[in-house]
Amino acid sequence: MNIYWGDLHNHCGITYGIGSLENALRIARNHLDFATVTPHAFWPDMPPRSPEIDYLIDFHEKGFSKIAENWDAVKATIDRANEPNMFTSLFSFEMHSSRYGDHHFVSPDRTLEIAKFPTPRAVIDNCAARAIAIPHHIGYTPGYRGIDWESFDEQISPVVEVISKHGCAMHERSGFPYYHDMGPFDPRNSAYRGLAGGRRFGFAGSTDHHAGFPGSFGDGKLAVLAEENTREAIFRALKGRRTYAATGSRMLCDFAVNGEGFGGEIPSAGSYNLRFSVAASNAIDRIVVFRDMKPIHVVDGCALPEAGGRHKLRLELGWGDNPDAPYPWDVRVRVENGRILSAEQCLRGRSVLSPTERVGGGDDINRCDWGIRERTDSEIRFFCETWRNNSTLSPSTAQLILEIEGGPDARLVYEINGIAVDTTVGKLADAGLSGHVKPYNSQAYKLHTAVPSGKYAYEGELRVPDDGAGLYHMEVRQFDGDAAYVSPVFVNR
Q1: Does domain 2-248 have CATH number 3.90.1150.10?
Q2: pLDDT tens per residue, range 30-46
């Protein structure tokens, strides 16, 4: 079984978004294992017309008509992007609902049709294909496009989107608040509230990006545990809840109770053996194991050892004062007396959440040829583009995270847009460094302080007695704020 990374909920110009479908799929293929590009399709209980919201109704209806006319062509384009065991493209469409909350319907079948019915169950029963209904931005006010836990149907919704650009709806302590114009997070609609009410579902993340950039870093991501990277295997993993949600970094997480992995079910027993492991992208802040949403075991990242023969090295690129035009970065890294074990690229496009935002660019927005272009055990070349940060708390930077095997004397030679940085693992473990490419309001780079493997990799085990609990799950947070939410193991009683 393997972990595959994807985005099952993002938008482009096929309805009311920005950017071309072809470019969105090309971006997805460049840095994800699977994706679907989601058209907005219908809203059965849209508010009635009034002078105040006529523009909003017209805006939505125009988008719905656009996908109705082009659905077959959209599916054909998505189908052509599919390449088994290289990149999986799935099919989807979105339903708005004031009462039930918004859902996107995901299918492995090209026969999927847009079934315009008033309930998620009726849509599933009439869409002419195998499909699941994934509720998203669940944390909005009940009746105001937040989830309706009373009508939630785990038979059609094995997973729930708990993190996206809207924020995190796991619980009030998640640390990613709702600030979209749709309103605040309502604690009655948290994922914890749904689980406490006896609903069973796994955790998913996706971006809900509206400018054709699937997998935009920091906006939400989905990990699935599957046999292979194909439509059938990915869909089977979704139906089996073999998932976890990540806010940004690709933390490799495992969690099992009495040998059953996350998303699964086990019979009740006298005691439970919990095994868990994390290979993070940065230093671990904490790992928390929960029983019925109450913490029973906490790993404090501050107490983890500053040791290990491997390090994570993070290069961050961006800043500057270019809000409208991208700034290109060409980076080459050479390693001596060590070797590159892995590389994680963290790419962001122009940040667009609300489809009514007045952002220029049209089909060319986020048109790019980014990513890792060459890689060996000793050298890597990486290209990306960045924009000015949206605010002091809203980054638009890109990152390249390398895992290096080697001691303190392992030499690192960075060439960053022609600027040479010659350093060692030992020096970066002592302190990171930064530099600028211009004298003023400059784009800049930052080599973060190196993190030893003792700080980012952890395995644990504990045994707990049976006390009537219904589920166990794990949450992980890095010191940079990134988090992962691992689907529960449920106890059958």
Answers
A1: no
A2: 999 999 999 999 999 99
